[in-house]
Write a structure and sequence with these properties.
Elements: E1 6-11, E2 17-23, E3 26-33, H1 36-45, H2 51-56, E4 62-64
Parallel strand pairs: 1-4
Antiparallel strand pairs: 1-2, 2-3
């Protein structure tokens, strides 16, 4: 269970992170972000005030799940074949 109303979910295998917004007890999917700029734009379209400050700052309103904040691609493992 997430406590923050804005959740940037774990990185998908193909890259990018799903972004959701909790509104009136319902979690709405805003989109698949491939950068901080995408997250900011999704929040702007959802009319969230000051989305750039929320994403780029250390806001308790944003929960980064399953990985480091601001990372949108999986790292290649040592077992990957080039």
């Amino acid at each position: 269970m997430h406590h923050a109303p804005i959740v940037v979910h774990r990185i998908s295998p193909s890259g990018g992170r799903r972004v959701t917004l909790l509104v009136a007890g319902r979690e709405d999917i805003l989109g698949l972000a491939r950068s901080d700029r995408d997250v900011i734009e999704f929040l702007r379209r959802a009319e969230v005030p000051d989305p750039d400050e929320l994403v780029l700052g250390d806001s308790p309103l944003v929960d980064w799940v399953g990985g480091e904040p601001h990372v949108y691609e999986l790292e290649a493992s040592d077992t990957d074949i080039p």
